[in-house]
Amino acid sequence: MIAMEREATMTTAAARPQTGRKRFDRGMKVLTNINGESAPNVIESLADISPELGRQVVAWAYGDMYNRPVLGPRDRQLVTLGMLTASAAASPSWTSTSTRL
């Protein structure tokens, strides 16, 4: 029984890098659909803090969370805007948006 558990743990550990790569690729696809050619800037902007942080943000936030099929892109953006507005974190975004209009 212990040998089977050890083998399952080793198999799971060996699969993690490929799974992480798939999550990252999926996240980059979603991020590129949203931000276009500026998608790699997300990773670059976090490189000073931690080179791995940008990859994890793309893999988790966009590859896992934003990619969920429960909400469509329009509804997801409305929910995000509502959450930002409720948390008062949207004020800088509103300022930059209004100056572009």
Q: Looking at the chains present, what oligomeric state does this protein adopt?
A: single chain
- Straight-line distance between termini: 65 Å
Uncertain runs with pLDDT below 50, 5 residues or more? Answer: 8-15
The total count of strands amounts to 0
The helix/strand class is: mainly alpha
Strand content: under 5%
Estimated radius of gyration: 18 Å
Give the rounded overall mean pLDDT.
Answer: 76
SSE pattern: HHHHH
- Largest sheet: number of strands, sense, barrel closure: none
Total number of domains: 2
User: Count of DSSP helices?
Assistant: 5
Morphology call: globular
The helix fraction, in percent, is over 70%
Report what the structure shows.
This protein has 101 residues and is an all-alpha fold. It folds into 2 domains: 2-68, no CATH class; 72-101. It is 78% helix and 0% strand. It has 5 helices and no strands. It has helices spanning 2-35, 40-45, 51-65, 73-86, 91-100. The protein is globular. The protein starts with a helix and ends with a helix. Residues 8-15 have low confidence and may be disordered.
